[in-house]
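Review form for a predicted model. The reviewer records the input and the model, then writes brief findings.
Reviewer: anonymous (R2)
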Amino acid sequence: MAIQNVAATTSQTTAAKALTDKTVTQGDFLKLLIAQLQNQDPMKPMDNQEFAAQLAQFNSLGQLIEINSKLGSLQTGQGSTNQYNAASLIGKEVSSTGNQIGLVAGSPATINYQLGANAAQVVTSIFNGAGELVRQVGAGARSAGDQTIIWNGKDGAGNSLPAGEYSFAITAVDLAGNKIPASGKTQGVVTGVKLDGAEPILEIGTLKVPLSAVTAVRSAH
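Model under review:
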C-alpha cells in the first residue's frame, strides 16, 4: 500500500509540475484527472461529489478556453477594422484634442482652440520644441466655443522661426479677470497613416495624431 501511495504521489507531482511549467490546457487537466483516478487509494476512493466537482471544473476550463479564443479573434478583427478606418481618413480634415502646431517655412500656422465661456481677453503662448516661449499673441475678446488664431510663424522680435513642431497654451479671462476654461485642438488634413504600432497614427503634415484622439472628421476644403 505504501508503494502505491508513493507512486500516486510521484505521478501527481509530475503532472502538477507540468501544469506549472506552461499554460494549463484541457489536455493537461484531463491528464491530471486520469492520473488521480489511476493512483487513488482503493481503500479510500475519491468521493463522488469531489469527482463531480472536478468534472465541472474541467467543463468550465473548456468554456473559458473557447471564450478566450473568440475574444482573440474579435480583437484581431477590431485591429483590422481600425487600420481600414484610419487609411480611409487620408485626404480628410480631422480634429483632435491636443496643443501641437506644425509650422511650414514661409507660411502662417492656424491655431485652433475651444473656450468654455465668453472671454474678455485671450492670449496664446507659443513654445518651440525645447519648451521655450517664442511668442505671445493676443486675440482680444472671443466668444465661447471653437476659435482660431493665425500665427505668422515669427517670434516676438519679428524673426521668422524654423519649420517644425511647436506647442501652444491658451489663457482666457472674463471681464472680472476670472480664468475661463480653454483647450487646444489639433486640426488639419491627413496626409498619411502609420500602421506599424499598437494603434494607427494619423500624419497631419509633421504632426502625429493617434486615431483614438480624433474628435471630428470632415471633407477637406
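Findings: The chain is about 35% helix and 35% strand.
Further findings: Confidence is low (pLDDT under 50) at residues 1-12.
Recommendation: see findings above.
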